[in-house]
Structure to design on (365 residues):
């Protein structure tokens, strides 16, 4: 039987050496080929990302927020956590301190907007103020709070698209009405509720407000006047919490406001009446009444009502009459509004960009 002959293997040339790898190295290479791709930082849970971003300097948060929506959400969660932590810490330490009053006022002036989906706008606007006093206890000054609120309200109106829209007016009126129950000496002295009409009179003892002069007699809704009213109430609330008296004259374009806070314990305490008249559907009237009657039991609706409404506000203060103000100040927040003049529009844009600060003359008692 003939033997099978196999061809001889081709011999390797001298210039092509054979590289022999140990078995362990071969196994490690196979593992690397079968392993998953490297993990992306944005794929981590938001709790871990918030913990990581806490070790980064607050001055770099602007760059981080601009990288992606995921990182902006993480930065928002971190900023909200730091703000709430500072607020609750000051509340436990001394509820009548200026630090607590400032943070409580910021929270009250922006609560409705934040819970309506503008949390990222709030965090982006408060970040510069947070960076200025991050190492020390977060305690912004009055002028910083005013500039922040002007910038925040202007940014929200730009996102909504129309300052005179129903959604913008609804958020403003809810914020305005929820302000009054934060005052210690706030009392509802009259309620007249009907199906399509509601009138509520709120009395504040101590804070007082009046308009000294205006070059244009307007009774219609003006977005800049709405911001002014919230900013004045914010400063009055801070004075009420800290139990400090003050008198202030604020000149704004073609208007001059006079307001203050009286902490004297005499029998004739300065009073201010705020009369709200709401014309709208039953759902709208009940929503606004709940803000003034039971703010702690207020139920945030899943969807805001879309029914048309008109709110008028009459402010009556005898103390302001001593300064030459009219007996009452009438403001209407309705669907029809007058356009801004060129000077007012430019001023609002400067305030939103931080170029213009408020000119305030303070007279302490």
């Amino acid at each position: 039987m003939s033997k099978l002959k196999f061809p001889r293997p081709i011999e390797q040339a001298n210039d092509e050496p054979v590289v022999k790898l140990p078995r362990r190295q071969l196994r490690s290479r196979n593992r690397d080929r079968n392993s998953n791709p490297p993990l992306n930082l944005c794929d981590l849970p938001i709790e871990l990302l918030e913990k990581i971003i806490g070790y980064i300097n607050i001055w770099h948060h602007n760059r981080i927020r601009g990288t992606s929506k995921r990182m902006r959400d993480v930065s928002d969660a971190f900023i909200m956590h730091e703000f709430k932590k500072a607020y609750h810490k000051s509340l436990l330490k001394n509820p009548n301190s200026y630090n607590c009053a400032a943070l409580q006022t910021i929270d009250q002036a922006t609560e409705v907007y934040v819970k309506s989906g503008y949390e990222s706008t709030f965090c982006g606007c408060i970040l510069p103020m947070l960076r200025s006093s991050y190492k020390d206890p977060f305690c912004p000054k009055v002028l910083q709070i005013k500039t922040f609120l002007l910038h925040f309200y202007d940014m929200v109106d730009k996102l909504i698209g129309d300052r005179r829209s129903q959604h913008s007016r609804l958020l403003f009126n809810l914020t305005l009405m929820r302000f009054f129950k934060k005052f210690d000496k706030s009392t509802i002295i009259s309620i007249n509720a009907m199906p399509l009409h509601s009138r509520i009179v709120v009395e504040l003892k101590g804070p007082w407000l009046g308009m000294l002069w205006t070059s244009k007699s307007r009774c219609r809704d003006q977005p800049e006047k709405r911001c002014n009213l919230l900013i004045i109430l914010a400063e009055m609330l801070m004075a009420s919490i800290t139990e400090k008296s003050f008198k202030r004259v604020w000149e704004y374009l073609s208007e001059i406001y006079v307001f203050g806070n009286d902490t004297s314990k005499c029998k004739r305490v300065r009073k201010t009446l705020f009369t709200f008249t709401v014309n709208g559907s039953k759902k709208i009237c009940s929503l606004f009444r709940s803000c003034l009657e039971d703010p702690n039991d207020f139920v945030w609706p899943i969807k805001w009502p879309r029914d048309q409404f008109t709110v008028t506000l009459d402010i009556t203060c005898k103390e302001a009459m001593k300064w030459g103000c009219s007996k009452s100040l009438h403001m209407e927040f309705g669907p029809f509004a007058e356009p801004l003049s060129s000077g007012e529009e430019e001023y609002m844009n400067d305030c939103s960009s931080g170029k213009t600060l408020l000119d305030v003359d303070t007279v302490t008692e």
